[in-house]
Amino acid sequence: MKEGTGTARKALWVDLASNKSTEGANRKELMSYTHPKSLEGKAVVVTGSARGIGRGIARTLARNGARLLVTDILADDLETLREDMTSHGTDVHSIAADLREPDAAERIIEEAYRKFGAVHGLVNNAMAIKPPSPLECQTLADFDLAISTGPRATFALMKAAYPHLVSAGGGSIVNFGSGAGAAGEPGFASYGAAKESIRGLSRVAALEWGADNIRVNVVLPFARTEGTDYWEQTDPEAFNAAVNAVPLKRIGDSEKDVGALVSFLLSDDSTYLTAQSIFVAGGSGVSR
Ligand SMILES: NC(=O)c1ccc[n+]([C@@H]2O[C@H](COP(=O)([O-])OP(=O)(O)OC[C@H]3O[C@@H](n4cnc5c(N)ncnc54)[C@H](O)[C@@H]3O)[C@@H](O)[C@H]2O)c1
Predict the structure, then answer these.
(1) In angstroms, what is the span from residue 264 Cα to ligand 1's centroid?
(2) Residues 190-204: pLDDT tens digits?
(3) How far apart are CA 243 and CA 236, in angstroms?
(4) Where are the alpha helices (DSSP H) in 150-246?
């Protein structure tokens, strides 16, 4: 069988999935992306985990053995996730919070410390995303929303987590950027500005906190969410063009693509990796 043929790829996928094809399988049967115990003993905070990519990340981290504090502004969806994960045996706690509130970061990190007695990882995934519009139509309120839920929240959570990461002997922070900022994309002025601010913050933190054995990396994803489902329904032509522009010709999966990368970045498999921006976008994604 030739490497790279459809049959070879399918065989590899079945093998990776522990002899279970994911086609038609329910989520409970899915493999542990990366390896099942890679996060055992680690207490991790994931923001924006009630839906979308954050929920996918939380599920993958749980499968790999992490203890989780999930948080989001959407209290009901968050509770649904917590109940589901608890029923699958995850040590998971939740705290509903609006990251724009001044005390949110401290409350979230303190809750994680109270429940687990340590914090080893922080995933700053949450961000409020508004529909695209031309720069001249965006308001200062739009800009403030992007900044307050993006870099400002990331900054506050990183600072709140820092003493706990130091006491744990080090840890890993995963922040979220976007190609809309790194390469630039019309319609995303406030969002793109906020996302690039997160990358700048992450680079400086990685340099300053390296001596504390705290690693800081940025993930720039392209993955299916409720938002991309809506995009596909309302503008299938644009959605399909975007997916076709991806070299791997598909949209990513929040659990097996983005979750797996985040899990790796939080694990001891990546202890020499810091200050990096990593696209998990099927080969698309350029920084200017
Ligand atoms: N989906 C993609 O393809 C894509 C592409 C590039 C970058 N990203 C980035 O990846 C991350 C996840 O994206 P997504 O598509 O899953 O987004 P999403 O909008 O589906 O989810 C974001 C989560 O953040 C939460 N949130 C929003 N405002 C909040 C607030 N004030 N306080 C607390 N929580 C709040 C939301 O409730 C939601 O659960 C984001 O940082 C996003 O910018 C996603």
Answers:
(1) 20
(2) 999 999 999 999 999
(3) 10
(4) 151-167, 179, 189-209, 226-234, 236-244
Alpha carbon of 180 to ligand 1 centroid (Å): 14
How many residues belong to the chain? 288
| Whole-prediction pTM | 0.91
Residue extents of the structural domains in the chain: 39-280
Q: Tell which CATH classification among 3.40.50.720, 3.30.10.20, 3.40.50.10190, 3.30.300.30 matches the domain 39-280.
A: 3.40.50.720
**Structural Rg of the chain based on CA atoms:** 19
Task: State the distance from the centre of ligand 1 to the C-alpha of 57, rounded, in angstroms.
Answer: 12
CB of 52 shorter than 6 A to ligand 1 = yes
Residue 151 CB less than 6 A away from ligand 1? no
Question: Could you confirm whether 33 is annotated as catalytic?
Answer: no
User: Is the CB of 156 within 6 Å of ligand 1?
Assistant: no
The model's pLDDT over 97-124, given as tens digits with 9 standing for 90+, comes to: 999 999 999 999 999 999 999 999 999 9
